[in-house]
Amino acid sequence: MLWFTESHTPNVNFSIRVSRHLHSEKSEYQQIDVFDSPEFGRFLSIDSVIMLTEKDEFIYHEMITHVPMAAVPGIKNVLVVGGGDGGTVRELTRYPAIEKIDMVDIDRRVIEVSREFLPFTSCKLDDPRVTLYFEDGVNFVSSKENEYDLIIVDSTDPISVGEGLFTASFYESCHKALKENGILVNQHESPYYEITAKAMRRAHKRIKEYFVPESCRVYQAFIPTYQSGHWLFGFAGKTAIDPLAFSDSEWNLLGLETKYYNTDLHRASFVLPNYVKKDLGY
User: How far apart are CA 42 and CA 46, in angstroms?
Assistant: First the structure.
């Protein structure tokens, strides 16, 4: 019997029974593995950390995408930093009004492996509106100015190749790369374990240095295979944008079928537990 085990803390492990180990390689940047499992279906790990599973990936990808798209109607130009599995791009392509989606990922092999083994997330990478860039996201964003309505940072944890995507200089570059009313959304780590809560606090503090503080809000989702299952996302605007001041009917008229996101949940996701509010300095 084969088991995949991810270390959440020195005292906590998370294990999934594996039926097949489909792919394993050490790319130029990281260890990439794909497994099949009886409970979660196919899943991708990078450096022994679960990036997504077939069973629960929709929660993460819907929440990182539909919350900003509903909050700020009229988004046309989007940049995805990271997200090589294609799930965020898949959700973005469901919006006819979007004209351009740039995706930049440092590791070409993540995209190639996802195309081969993860068609449920990579299925829209060939959409004509999508342009793929295989380079360092930090450098890519630093070269842009006043170009995007929305930047989604769909990054790995702040270790190895993902570390630069949690720095103050990166958030400053994102601010410059966004148009006047642009917004930044990022995966914000888990508030539960201290190791991830530390990264959460640091990211939130740095983002508030460059974006309008009133618009820097945090929202949550519950993803079974991520550390603790309790996961956060950051929302930040260049202007005083309220992510709750949107029209439910306008988004619902789009007729998008979702498995997790809805406009009631959108509003509820910004209601945080007291311990998280305290940790973020709310």
Answer: 14
- Residues 137-182 have pLDDT tens digits of 999 999 999 999 999 999 876 655 556 677 888 999 999 999 999 9
Is residue 248 annotated as a catalytic residue, yes or no? no
Q: Which residue out of 154, 157, 248, 279 is catalytically annotated?
A: 154
Per-residue DSSP letters for 187-230?
A: E---SSSHHHHHHHHHHHHHHHHHS-GGG-EEEEEE-TTSGGGE
- The DSSP call for residue 147 is -
Q: How far apart are the first and last CA of the chain?
A: 47
- Let me know the angle formed at the C-alpha of 196 by 195 and 200, rounded to the nearest 5 degrees: 125
How far is residue 206 from each of residues 121, 169, 187, 211, measured CA to CA in Å? 30, 9, 14, 9
DSSP state at residue 32: E
Q: Pairing between strand 31-37 and 41-46?
A: antiparallel
